[in-house]
Amino acid sequence: MAKPIYVLNGPTLNMLGSREPHIYGSQTLADEEAMTADRASAFGHTIDFRQTNSEGQLVDWILEAREKACGIILNGAAYTHTSVALMDAISASELPVVEVHISNIFKREPFRHHSYVSTVSLGVICGLGPIGYALAVEALSDYLAKHLGS
Ligand code: DQA
Is 143 labeled as catalytic in the residue annotation? Predict the structure, then answer.
């Protein structure tokens, strides 16, 4: 059985749809999940889509992915900018990670311009809105096909 892509979402992303819609839009996290699953299936992959407000839980899921997933799409939300723990977990996972942000973090406050996650990720998709998750699936699928033959 092929391993899924883990799609991991950090703090406050459970509020998508009602949280600052002028920044994050009106789609809910459930909408994101459906769109990401659709795109994954078009590329012959499945997803395991999760959200937590806890940094430790994200670390545990990234480490779990090392054995159980073929790659990770990660929107670490605010922990992106603060968490050496997330960065270390990604390195330890030895998996390709595509970092996603719904908003353009470089157009926002200076503290959002640095990402610990980017330093250990395959690439970053940011500022394109919810479609970023679907684009990340496409990028990861392409990488996996080229590097792992899957
Ligand atoms: C975010 C950007 C982060 O700076 C912010 O803390 C979030 C969401 C995004 O998807 O645009 O919670 O990751």
Answer: no
Catalytic residue among 6, 24, 116, 133: 24
pLDDT in tens, 11-32: 999 999 999 999 998 999 999 9
The whole-number pLDDT of residue 148 equals 75
Domain ranges of the chain: 5-147
At 65-110, the pLDDT tens digits run 999 999 999 999 999 999 999 999 999 999 999 999 999 999 999 9
CB of 122 within 6 A of ligand 1: the answer is no
Query: Which of 22, 28, 54, 101 has most ligand 1 atoms within 8 Å of its beta carbon, as the pocket-test mutant?
Result: 101
Tell which CATH classification among 3.30.70.20, 3.40.50.9100, 3.40.50.300, 3.40.50.720 matches the domain 5-147.
Answer: 3.40.50.9100
Question: What is the rounded (10 degree) CA torsion for 127, 133, 134, 139?
Answer: 90
Show the DSSP H helices in the chain as ranges.
21-24, 29-42, 55-68, 84-93, 131-147
Of 9, 105, 111, 125, best ligand 1 pocket probe by most atoms within 8 Å of the beta carbon: 105
